[in-house]
Specification:
With 574 residues, this protein is an alpha/beta fold. The chain is built from 23 helices and 16 strands. Helix 15 links the parallel strand 12 and strand 13. The longest helix has 30 residues.
């Protein structure tokens, strides 16, 4: 009997194949008393070392298939294995209680996970709970001599069905055989969803029930365009979706023709579509998809893949490579955004109840100026090789921006005095992600060269809701009139001072948000490279004259997130 299960459309595409249930192995064990605790600790260390080696291999596979940015999550997993607060606690448990390593690992990890998950106002700690769970499962499997599921060994076409997909699972998916995946839990901003978009695999997440609705080997149609899985489809269903898949493939081929075209609306207005990158290795995807610039270069990944603070020369080489690779197109570089969910083993940060609201980003840079000045010198030296724009993250007050700009100007003057070639056309801007700054955008606009709106943080800070917490995920509302009013105020404030405004958050490539942003006059849209051509195609069909009225209604008349979603859908489908 045909059954349709609705979920969240996490990655575009349509696929039909048999279900492959990604079932986790039995990791149960008995508690045992241990007399030789040194031998037991040695057994634990062997399991940790094997797990670390595996994670290195998985990270390399992920880097090859997904890019450096997505592979960084496995560095976080490796950091957990190297963290004495975690592994040291397990060792101590073995010694103090004379219990087997399995019991000690289970006790310590449950304690960590329980504490982290209880911090519902703390995105960083909540994300670490999932990482601890993933790492613990891997170490436990080696202690028990049990093999973990290995999606990379799948040798026929399947749709993966799982309660959730860990980053480790997703990184091992072979596109030749895995045609898509569907999960019980998750959202569009989950690691697995982001990876699916990078792999261009259809994905539907957050169905709640899919693992109970599907049996191994059953035929499943995955509709990543509309967020649905059709189980045991009829022949007519299969034909219908085969046509939809063919139409979508043809549409992608049409998008490909736009690779070398400018982004122009139906009424002739030009807008810039840029791409987000994490490292110079991501540059090829930007070029292949015809982006008109780099709208967000997340420089923190340069720090995260180093064993120590990267030198000025190492940073200079990375920035120069990107600027030269873009051949004169603009590159917006965000200065180090460490803290929150991004920690460095060699840069200890204070323990905080709310790391996302604490010592991070520009706050660290202004406090640890030697780190900030090194980065700015590297950027200034690289500026001679392309069109560099620099933005500071997490700016909350005008004094923070002024202080950052003053340090920039001091370092520039020193280099010029030494005869180092430095561009005179570097724009200095800021991320708009703190609501207090967004409200004062008219004042900031007098002093910055541009704004780049970071929607992920702006939404969660405005709604007081962790976007990674499934219990409050309903509050992650990009179309809520309160969010749109802030966005419009930022754009209007920039334009009033003759400055430009961009967006580099998840919403910049969203099919519902794009028409609203066009109506508000947003100048630059930065997104995953794989979304560039789709958004360019959408913009060519839209007229800004009509969209201005649409945006005004969304901002001033609508009351809910759903009102605005329906408003845009009605406009597009009319």
């Amino acid at each position: 009997m045909v059954k349709t299960i609705k979920g969240i459309a996490a990655s575009d595409g349509i696929a039909t194949a048999e279900a492959y249930l990604l079932v986790q192995p039995d990791l149960s064990f008995d508690k045992k008393s241990i007399s030789d605790t040194d031998a037991e600790v040695s057994r634990l260390k062997d399991a940790i070392a094997t797990s670390d080696s595996e994670l290195t291999k998985i990270r390399d596979v992920a880097k090859e298939s997904l890019g450096e940015e997505e592979a960084q999550v496995f560095d976080a997993h490796k950091m957990i294995l190297a963290d004495p607060e975690f592994t040291g606690a397990v060792e101590q448990e073995v010694k103090d209680k004379s219990v087997n390593a399995e019991q000690a690992l289970d006790d310590v990890s449950k304690n960590f996970i329980q504490i982290f998950e209880a911090m519902t106002d703390n995105p960083y700690m909540q994300e670490r709970a999932a990482d601890v769970r993933d790492v613990t499962k891997r170490v436990m499997a080696h202690l028990l001599g049990v093999e973990l599921p290995n999606p990379s060994l799948i040798d026929h076409e399947v749709i993966i069905v799982a309660h959730d997909l860990t980053p480790s699972d997703t990184a091992q998916l072979n596109k030749k055989y895995v045609k898509g995946f569907v999960t019980d839990i998750g959202g569009r901003t989950a690691h697995s969803a982001i990876m699916a978009r990078s792999l261009e695999l259809p994905a539907v997440v957050g169905t709640n029930t899919i693992t109970g609705d599907v049996k191994e080997g059953q035929t499943v149609i995955l509709d990543g365009l509309n967020g649905a899985a059709i189980v045991d489809p009829t022949d007519d269903d299969i034909k219908k979706y085969a046509k939809l898949a063919k139409d979508f493939a043809a549409q992608k081929a049409e998008w490909e023709k736009l690779k070398n075209e400018a982004t122009v609306t139906a009424d002739g207005k030009h807008f810039d579509i840029a791409a987000n990158i994490g490292t110079p290795d991501d540059l090829q995807g930007v070029i292949d998809n015809g982006a008109e610039g780099v709208g967000l270069y997340r420089t923190e990944f340069l720090y995260m893949q180093s064993e120590e603070l990267p030198t000025e020369d190492a940073q200079f080489d990375a920035y120069k490579k990107v600027l030269e690779g873009m051949k004169g197109k603009p590159v917006v570089v965000r200065t180090m955004d460490i803290g929150g969910d991004k920690h460095l083993s060699y840069l200890p940060l204070p323990e905080e109840m709310n790391p996302f609201l604490g010592y991070r980003a520009i706050r660290i840079s202004l406090d640890r100026q030697e780190i900030f000045r090194t980065q700015l010198r590297a950027l200034l030296r690289a500026s001679a090789f392309g069109q560099l724009r620099i933005m500071f993250p997490m700016i909350g007050t005008l004094n923070e921006f002024r202080s950052a700009k003053k340090i920039f100007e001091e370092e520039k003057a020193k280099l010029v005095e030494k005869g180092v070639e430095v561009s005179d056309n570097i724009q200095l801007g800021m991320m708009m992600e703190v609501p207090a700054a967004a409200i004062l955008a008219d004042q900031f606009a007098k002093e910055v060269d541009f704004f780049s709106i970071g929607t992920n943080d702006l939404i969660q800070y405005t709604m007081a809701a962790d976007r990674g917490n499934e219990h409050v995920s309903y509050l992650y509302q990009p179309y809520n009139p309160s969010i749109l009013r802030l966005v419009k105020h930022v754009i209007d404030s920039a334009h009033a001072e003759g400055k430009w405004a961009g967006m580099c958050g998840e919403a910049a490539g969203d099919n519902i948000m794009v028409p609203l942003l066009l109506g508000m006059g947003l100048d630059e849209y930065s997104m995953s490279a794989t979304s560039v051509l789709r958004v360019r195609s959408l913009m060519k069909k839209l007229s800004t004259a009509d969209l201005k009225e649409l945006a005004d209604r969304a901002v001033n008349e609508s009351i809910t997130n759903e009102d605005n979603q329906k408003l845009v859908e009605s406009y597009i489908n009319k």
